[in-house]
Each structure stands twice: as C-alpha cells, then as structure tokens.
Design goal:
mainly alpha; Growth Hormone, Chain: A; 204 residues
C-alpha cells in the first residue's frame, strides 16, 4: 500500500520519520516568489552565467559537429551520422560516472560546494582542452576521439551546474532552473548563429 507522505506510513519508525523531516523542505506549495531576494544573490548569477557558458559550447557542437565531420574530416554522410553519435554516447556513460564520483566525495566528507566546483571545473576545462587540440591534429580518428572526450568531460556538469539549483535554493529550484535555462537557451540561439556567421564571413 502506498502513502502520500512518510508520516502516514506505519512501517517507518519514529526515528526514521524525524530524520526524513529534518532533511526535507516544507511541503507547502510556493505561492509567492521572492524575485528581489533571488536576483540579489551572487550564487544565482554565477549559476546563470555558468549555464549560459555551458550551453554556448554544447549547442554549437550539437549543431555544427556534422558539418565539421563532413567538410573538415571529409567523412561521408553515413560516417558523419555514425560518428556524431559517439560523443553523446560517451556523455551518457560519463554522466553516470561523474555522479558516482560526486556522491562518493560527498559521502567521504567533502563539502557539497567543493564537489560542485570540482565537477563543473572538469565540465568546462575538459572540453576546452580536447577541443583546442582539434587545430593541432591531422588524424580523423584522433579528431573523433577528441570530440568524444570533450563531451565525456562535459557530462561532469550534470554533477556540477545541473545539481546546484537544488543545493542553493531547494524550495525555488524550479525557479532557479527556469532562470538559468533561459540564459542557456539564449546562448544556444546566439552561439549557433554566431558560429554560422563566422564560418560564412570570417572574423571581422
């Protein structure tokens, strides 16, 4: 039999219920959003900036990777399609590995803030390193490997940026994600368009 709340479940001991309550936020629905307070907090703006930067790179790769494979690496359409899957497959696996590492660090006493910073640093510096190598290598195989490693390290952001909304504002996590993701979507739009413009016209 299912119960609406842990407090209603007779199978949970009093001590367990007390622990659950101490670790959860209020179950009351949010009726008023304190926009002024939220927007006055530096961590919120750091989260927004982080989401913007993350999506700038992700959407550029998502949009322009097939063109890179076809025009630069000279893969045909079938090969480009197959190799485009590899970075995202690597990302799916790496996200779970990153989550396990983050949970392990927290369980061993590392502060949540430190863990988020470590994970997001990997999520930013990893792609920056691997993508920068593309201008120095001639092997298509190495280029594909760099793309895969780039997205694999990018997936550590799932344990950094994307977990941080719940950390800094549990009751308003949805609002925080809405704010940061709005910035992220704008980054995707402008980043993709800017890349297309630069590829077509070059830098001024």
């Amino acid at each position: 039999k299912a119960y609406s709340t842990p407090l209603e479940d007779p199978g949970i001991s009093a001590e367990e219920k007390k622990l659950i309550i101490s670790e959860t936020t209020s179950g009351e629905p949010v009726t008023t959003i304190p926009w002024g307070v939220i927007l006055s907090k530096p961590p919120v703006w750091a989260l927004i900036a982080c989401h913007f930067c993350h999506n700038w790179g992700t959407f550029i790769l998502l949009t322009w990777m097939p063109t890179y494979y076809n025009q630069v690496l000279k893969f045909n359409l079938t090969e480009s399609s197959l190799f485009c899957v590899l970075p995202w497959l690597t990302m799916a696996i790496s996200a779970n590995v990153g989550g396990w590492i983050a949970d392990t660090l927290v369980s061993r006493g590392t502060s949540v803030t430190t863990v988020r910073k470590i994970m997001q640093s990997i999520g930013f510096l990893g792609p920056a390193f691997f993508l920068s190598q593309l201008s120095h290598i001639d092997s298509p195989a190495l280029a594909v490997l760099c793309m895969a490693c780039s997205q694999g390290s990018d997936a550590f952001s799932q344990s950094g940026l994307y977990s941080n909304h719940q950390d800094i504002g549990p009751r308003y996590a949805g609002v925080l994600l809405g704010l940061s993701n709005t910035a992220g979507v704008l980054a995707g739009v402008f980043g993709t368009a800017a890349t297309g413009y630069i590829l077509q016209h070059g830098l001024p």
